[in-house]
Amino acid sequence: MKSIKLMKGEFDESLNLLLAPGIKAGFPSPAGDYLRESLDFNRDLIRHPEATFYGLVEGDSMENAGINDGDIAVIDRSLEPQDGDVVVGYINGDFTVKFLDLSHRAEGYIELRPANPRYQPIRIDETDNFEVWGVVVWTIKNWKR
Amino acid sequence: MYGIVDCDNCYVSCERVFRPDLNGKPVVVLSNNDGCVVARSNEAKKLGIKAGMPYYQLAQQLPNEKIAVFSSNYELYGELTARVLEIIRQEAPAYFRYSIDECFVYFNSFDMHDGSTGLKGWGEQLYRRIRKSVGIPVSIGIAPTKTLAKTASHFAKKYPGYRHCCLIDTEEKRRKALKLYSIGEVWGIGRRYSARLEALGVKTAYDFAQKSESWVNATFNNIVIHRTWQELNGEDCVPNEELAKKKSICTSRSFNGMVTDIDTLKTHVANYAARCAEKLRQQGTVASVVAVFLYTNTFRQDLPQYWNFREQRLPMATDSTIDIVKAASQALQDIYIQGYHYKKAGVILMGIGPNSPVQLDLFDFNAEHFQKMKRLDAIIDRINKVNGTETIVLGSQQYSQKDGKGKADVFANAIKHDFRSKNPTTRWTDIIHLK
Q: Out of A11, A97, A131, whose CB is closest to B357?
């Protein structure tokens, strides 16, 4: 009689079985060849999820740019702010949304420009404690409250 | 080569992302329950504030300093560090998260097309990307061994000249770094061993690395110490699996005040157990032992003192909240003695392994129950993820109603967090306001 050898199994790793290509279960759908993934805002509009933050717009200082009280701003921190961008700045303890005007850089200052004649541009020079916190890439408006 | 990416004063840096006005100012973050200081900005360190300093001493000892104080907000720290990790994932050939604020990165020779010097540029670029995208500063150390990489990150943090990335890739740099590195700071050398080493005249990492192998073995006869010695000498030997081996998961807190009755204790312990189970599921592991410990207030020597610890082996390794809470309750019941004023309890999960396949207990296994528990936990986790922590809790996690009128408190409200910041990345109600 042969002796029986006991084998110890290895169970501490899991093995994922993949379906071999070309093998399909069930009845094939005639639309199968035309399938595309659905449009997805998160995937298609937010290019840098790890750098994306949201902000709630307060007030009417950007009214004429179509950015209104209650809108949600999608902010991308990874982008290098360019002249004319809508940016989120941090000044004197507040976040603010304005146009970035870099045209006076040679003269030693930059401006944050509102889009409403009732507001003055904010002039910022090196002595101010200021940073561009991020660049606004989209705003979201709710039309059906 | 190995790299370590380490978030500078992690919790403070997370708070500063939404409070840029606090850059350059002293900031501290308190432990759960606002007990003591767990994180300090460099400015707070300069004021002499030590880690672990009780909060009430802060105002006593520094009455004239303006210090920004935050309760810990792990929801925020977890989210922001996940973003840091995502950038590391995109930039690094291979990585392993070592703790909430540290991540190891692996390079092989293929990744280093322009030799190891290219790694310095890689590190500086990684710093800039994380700093800009997430707003958190990191320090990066790169070296041939994990222990030397940790050493390098210390220098990257300490000296601005390194531009946040320090590379130890030559014998000369290694010697120079180790000579300036005190033995107590070396990764893997605990406080106990560093005291012994110092008593033996070993003051710096260099002194230790210069000792002979036979001296190290004869003095300590300890594999971890031996490996640290090898690693300081440039020999890569801490296995990667070692980092993954989270030997235990622990949740423990000091109570807000003292607790005498078993029902309140059970509620606390149920919450700690539930938290541990959640952590298990997050890392995809299961535990086979649940332990509970219990302390009276050691600062109140006028009161009778008692402490105890009890392990409860689970019939089958699990990540189920209900099973783990049950076992923890049993262990607590076993050690609870009426009449003491308890100050602290905790739950530790041990015997942790990958969650599939679980070693099933053939005699006690109920497949239907097992599947039900799995489904239930998945649903609880999902609801809590979507609607905020502790939207759904087990009945045993609810604190009994105060004076019979108010709503029963859940755990989150029963712990003190007077200075907690908002959660602008996880709750729509908390997003920043733009004027």
A: A11
* Dist. CA B249–CA B251, nearest whole Å: 7
**Quick one: residue B257, left, alpha or beta (phi over 0 = left, psi -120 to 50 = alpha)?**
left
A131 interaction partners in chain B (CB closer than 8 Å): 20
Alpha-carbon gap, residue B173 to B176, rounded angstroms: 5
Catalytic residue status for A78: no
Chain A contact set for B357 (CB, 8 A)? 11, 14
Give the Cβ contact number of residue B238 at 10 Å.
19
Fold type of domain B170-245 = DNA polymerase; domain 1 (1.10.150)
Q: Which CATH number fits domain B1-167: 3.90.870.40, 3.30.70.270, 3.20.170.30, 3.40.50.11240?
A: 3.30.70.270
Give pLDDT tens digits for B303-313: 888 887 887 88
Determine, for residues A50 and B132 on separate chains, whether the beta-carbon distance falls below 8 Å. Answer: no
Q: How many residues does chain A have?
A: 145
So what's the pLDDT on residue B271? 93
By the CB < 8 Å criterion, does B113 face chain A? no
Which domains are delineated in chain A?
50-140 (2.10.109.10)
ipTM higher than 0.90?
no
- Facing residue for A56 by CB, picked from B86, B135, B431: B431
